[in-house]
């Protein structure tokens, strides 16, 4: 993969108690299209940029600026091949998280411990 990006088109995923409500807020603020499903929602610009919202049980909002508890979100990036991308990010210093809840994406921790996902779509 020398000379090629490992991933493309990052998407921000924000944890929250009500994904639909938060998506409607940001959709209205940004004038982006809103798509809501039971535990997930997203807002998308016409040019493709997306912000996603994920339902989290017992959500505790961050307290600014103390970060107690810290902000809750993670990065999703689109890849063409999960195995090749996994090898590449592990080589860069990521750690594969033991809990893998899906088959079309994989969860990793960056070198500082922040979660991120490699996603097929």
From TrEMBL:
It holds the Pfam family Glyoxalase_6. It comes from the Bacteria. Residues 11-119 form the Glyoxalase-like domain. This is Glyoxalase-like domain-containing protein. The lineage of its organism: Bacteria, Bacillati, Actinomycetota, Actinomycetes, Micromonosporales.
